[in-house]
Model the fold of this input.
Amino acid sequence: MYNEQMIQELRKRWNALQQALAREGGDAILITTNVNLFYVSGRIFSGAAYVRPEGDPLFFVRRPVGLKGGNVIYIRKPEEIALLEVAFFRISATSVIS
Done:
C-alpha cells in the first residue's frame, strides 16, 4: 500500500511526535481531525490515531472497512478506544515476554 519513501516519512513524523510527547512528559496523544490523521497515517479515515512515546501508533478505525495492519483496530464508537488500548498493550506485552 505504501512505498518505502512514504513509510520512512511516516516513521519520521511518528518519531517527531514521540519526542515531543517524551519532552513534555505526556503519556499519549489521541488524534481525530482529518488533517492530523493524514499527517500521521498518510490517509484520511473515520476514527483516531493513538500515539505513545514509544512504538508504532495504533489506528482506531470506524470507516473505511478493509484497512489492514497489526496496529489497525476496528471500532464501532469512540468510547471503545480506552478499553481496546488497554487490551492491545496487555496482549502485546504478554506476547513479547512469552
